[in-house]
Amino acid sequence: QPKRKAAFGSVGRRIPYRILHVISQDGESLGNMHRAEAFRLMDQHGLKLVLLRENVEPPVYRLMTGQQIHEEQLKRAEKKKASPKPGMYIKELSFSSAIAKNDLETKTKQIALWIEKKHHVKVTIRQAK
User: Fold this and answer.
1) Does pTM top 0.90 for this prediction?
2) Which CATH superfamily is domain 90-126 in?
3) What is the 3-state secondary structure (H, E, C) of 11-24?
4) Which single residue of 15, 47, 62, 115 has CA 20 to 30 Å from 98?
């Protein structure tokens, strides 16, 4: 069974790496240290270790408070909401402000069809010279 990627903030004390690069809660680098040293710092300051980047050597962890973790989770959720979902199309249509009546009607029908198909529609109107 493949490992499931843990949600942000759910690291706890299960860290598979021996050597970590640790960043303080203020954002300054504390350098590379052994996992036990990182746990000692974590307990000393009442913080939690959160994985930031796993694909680098050594992996980067950050000391964060519960409040910081919560705020970061909210930011990531907002970002995920804003990004288009797979299978969702964004249709773009652009026309001049001096467009003929028939062309405008045709394009409005096309926009209505796209909206019915649940596509996101972006319309740009350029000013005529």
Assistant:
1) no
2) Translation initiation factor 3 (IF-3), C-terminal domain (3.30.110.10)
3) CCCCCCCCEEEEEC
4) 115
Query: Which residues touch 129 (CB under 8 Å, ≥6 apart)?
Result: none
C-alpha torsion angle, residues 38, 39, 43, 44 (rounded to 10): -40
The alpha helices in 6-90, defined as continuous H runs, are: 35-45, 66-82
Cα gap 125→12, rounded to integer Å: 52
- CATH class name, domain 19-82: alpha beta
Q: Do residues 35 and 20 make contact, with C-beta atoms less than 8 angstroms apart? A: yes
**For 47-58, what is each residue's pLDDT tens digit?**
888 888 878 888
Q: What is the pLDDT of residues 17-33, one digit of tens each?
A: 888 898 888 888 888 98
Domain ranges of the chain: 19-82, 90-126
